[in-house]
Amino acid sequence: MSPAFQAVSSVRAVSSVSLDGPRIILIPMPGETHTFGLSMVYEFFHQAGWNAWTGPIASSAVLCGLVRSEWVEVIGLSLACDDMLDTARKQIAAVRRASRNPKMGVLVGGPGFVANPALAASIGADGTATDGRMAVLQAQAMMDEAVYFR
Fold first, then answer.
1. In the CATH hierarchy, which fold is given to the domain comprising 20-148?
2. Which value, to the nearest 10 degrees, does the dihedral of the CA atoms of residues 99, 102, 105, 111 take?
C-alpha cells in the first residue's frame, strides 16, 4: 500500500469507516481484461468510506441480477478500448432498467474517456473522471443530485 493510502488508512481506522456507506460496484466491462486501474480506483472509494465492491462480472445478466437484488448508488464501468462503446451503451441501458435504484449513477472510466470525456454522455453514462480522487467526487455529486431531485 502506498504511503498516501497508509496515511488515510490510519485516519480511517480511528474514525471507524462503516460498511453502511454508499454502495458502488466497480467493474470492467464484461469481457474486458484490464483491471489494474480499476483496483486503484477501488482503493480511493474504500478510503473515502464507500461500501465498494470490485471484481470481474461473468456476463451482463449477472450484473443486471446484482443491481436488481442490491441497492447500489453508483456503478463504475471500466473500458480500456473504444471498440466496445456500443456494447457499453447497451450494458448501461440494461443496468439502468434492472436497477432497484431508479436514480443510480453510472460512472465510466478508461483511456478513451480521459482523451475524450464527451464519450461518457454519448454512451449514456452520467460522468467520467481522470483519476480515483475525481471518481469519488463525481460519484458523490451523482448521489447528491439523486437525493436532491427525489
1. Rossmann fold (3.40.50)
2. 50
Please report how the helices 60-69 and 85-98 are oriented relative to each other, as an axis angle in degrees rounded to 10: 30
- Per domain, the residue ranges of the chain are 20-148
Q: What is the pTM of this model?
A: 0.82
For the chain, strand residue ranges (E) read 23-28, 51-54, 74-78, 105-109, 127-128
Tell me the sheet residues that pair with 53.
Answer: 25
Which residues on neighbouring strands pair with residue 25, listed in sequence order?
53, 75
Summarize pLDDT for 127-150 with one digit per residue, the tens: 999 899 999 999 999 988 876 444
* C-alpha angle 70-72-76 in degrees, rounded to nearest 5: 125
Measure CA of the first residue to CA of the last residue in the chain; give whole Å. Answer: 39
The alpha carbons of the chain give a radius of gyration, in whole angstroms, of 15
Sign of the C-alpha dihedral, residues 131, 146, 50, 110?
Answer: negative
Encode pLDDT of 19-75 as tens digits: 578 999 999 987 777 788 888 999 999 999 999 999 888 888 999 999 999 999 999
